[in-house]
């Protein structure tokens, strides 16, 4: 989750945006959406829920949780790297 937050911070070029996105998502967002029937399956693929499945003792889908969390992290870091290189190229 810390690498995911670092990718969001690099994308936003600010430390406040990851806090504004991750805190509500982790503390309330996925819990509220998991109650709604239509979004119950989608919430399984949020980074906080994937990390929880990955760390649960005796979980059958720990590797799936790891893959989902890894995909979110790679996407955030790739987007942050792209934005960082694009920003630096524009300053020259």
Please characterize this protein's 3D structure.
The chain has helices at residues 2-12, 16-35, 47-55, 62-90. The radius of gyration is 15 Å and the shape is globular. With 92 residues, it is an all-alpha fold. The protein is built from four helices and no strands. The model has no long low-confidence stretch (mean pLDDT 81). Helices cover 75% and strands 0% of the residues.
Q: Could you provide a short overview of the structure?
A:
With 92 residues, the chain is an all-alpha fold. The protein contains four helices and no strands. The model has no long low-confidence stretch (mean pLDDT 81).
Poorly predicted sequence stretches spanning 5 or more consecutive residues = none
For the secondary structure, the number of strands is 0
Radius of gyration: 15 Å
Give the terminus-to-terminus CA distance. Answer: 33 Å
The helix/strand class is mainly alpha
Helix content, binned percent: over 70%
Arithmetic mean of pLDDT? 81
Beta-strand percentage range: under 5%
Q: What sort of overall outline do the alpha carbons produce when their principal axes are compared?
A: globular
Task: Summarize the topology.
Layout: H1 2-12, H2 16-35, H3 47-55, H4 62-90
Helix pairs in contact: 1-2, 1-4, 3-4
List keywords for this structure.
75% helix, 92 residues, mainly alpha
